[in-house]
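Reader question, answered in our methods column.
A reader sent in the components of a multi-part assembly and asked whether the whole thing could be modeled at once rather than chain by chain. We filled in our standard form and ran it. Here is what they sent:
COMPLEX SIZE: two components
ENTRIES:
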Amino acid sequence: MSTTATYTVRDSATMLRRNLLHIRRYPSLSIMLVAQPILFLLLFVYVFGGTLGAGLPGQQGGGDRTDYLVYITPGILIMTVASVALGTAISTATDMTTGIIARFRTMDIARVSVLTGHVLGAVIKTGFAVVVVAAFAFLLGFRSDAGALGWLGAIGLLLLIAFALTWLTVGMGLAADSVETASNTPLFLMILPFISSAFVPTEAMPAGLRQFAENQPFTPMINTLRDLITGTPTDSDLWLAIGWCVLISLLGFLWSRRLFLRVPAK
Amino acid sequence: MTAPTPAIEVAGLTKAYGDTTVLDGVDLTVPEGTVYALLGPNGAGKTTIVNILSTLLTPGDGEIRVAGFDVRREPAGVRAAIGVTGQFSAIDELLTGRENLRLMADLAHLDRATTTDAVQAMLERFELLDAADRRAQTYSGGMKRRLDLAMTLIVRPRLIFLDEPTTGLDPRSRRELWAIVRELVADGVTVLLTTQYLDEADHLADKIGVLDGGRLVAEGTSAELKRRVPGGHVSVQFTDPARLAVAAATYLDATADHDALTLQVPSDGTVAGLRRVLDGLDDDGVAGLTVETADLDDVFLALTGHAAEAPVSEAEEIPA
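And here is the structure of the entire assembly that came back:
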């Protein structure tokens, strides 16, 4: 049994190396996925930021553009994670169309390593993307009083979210019957943050929408991340965020594994 | 000495998708160290058999053992023993040739030193050294197929499946691939190959199974199959039309080609039969003669009632 575990780890490392080479050889996809949240950041700060900043609660006479930048940075960081996850669905679906996957299936290897290679590669890619987008936010004037612990917590939470969304989108990539489908199904991951606490406080929304926004998974994740990177003590949203991540990871993993391990009937 | 376990044992293999029967009770045995060719047109079930034997597909019914392992109950054992090169290239196009080979060696858990040596040896053997550090997507069709095969062979499987290995290759690449298959067999490797090219089966296989509509309609060596059908003849070339006309009048069952000045006299290929033909010929009227036995095209036609399907057209060839 322990040799099986050793081989699973070793094969996963081999597959991770393969996926990292793919990322290096095909950088345009990664660049596009990072450009998207940066564009949103610019758009929201400079086009809407003046007006929306003035509507932020808790500041005397509302806030300004910089206050709004601070408000939306956590949402933008989580959208970065979602954006890379979208790319993972595409790259997984593309990979499944290549002949080498059939070769892997005829080899005596830990099969799940094909998937863990994708997931680990995508999480590393997400890490880079988040660092780039965060650096961009600092460039635009993001400042915070958060301590080292807060930042460590933020990194941990972002990795957890990346892990969850990646397993989910790997499943979507496997379930898609074509690469085009795989690029469409995860689009809701880019829409959902708009109906959350990412860009405006949920209190400002009408009743039905507000209930949805407050109870969907992105809101506790964004709220917790906001607390962590602004040096505010976290509340019960932390546990909700972690709970959602664990649940999504687990379901995504089981779904993906089932899709990949089944012996095709045809 | 007891008989060794055959590399492949298949009894009563069936496979159906819904109401469509793809394999209808196939039996075949491939002894170790031999080449078995499954010959048949597109849609005969060749690839389905390879996919089932290589654990990519679940069989319907039947007893199937590969390298001594049951494909249903012991797929890991089967996978550890086999190598597969399919008709669609199973290489990672974003990786270089060297990286592709390394990937296979790593997945076979070879140690570092062995891996480096094996990768180098494969690059040399398959003439890929110059292109070793280029991405595989820049390779020509023949190079991709060579890399594909090298990836299969680097882990030294004892049993290899080649599914239409030369489809879409130019004649030179086909010859090279045939030479590689012969080397493998010399090393004691067992090969099961599928092909729709009759001459390929003729050149490579110890035994040929003719597959048509999911059934093995005939099995035997190339010579055995050819003997089962008529079609052998002696082709005599004459020096002038007059002599051809005289000879044509003597052999009533012969066919004369007046433009080419040849006469085709049916013959069973035996010495006695040949002598009968020669006895009736005039020494100085004959420019040359050849003895031709039935080729596998004739065999295919006789056994299946229809001609072997034309090979893949240019447009469908794997792009270089």
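What stands out: The interface with chain B takes residues 7, 10-11, 14, 17-18, 21-22, 25-26, 98-100, 102-109, 263-266 of chain A (CB under 8 Å). Chain A has eleven helices and no strands.
Send us your own complexes using the same form.
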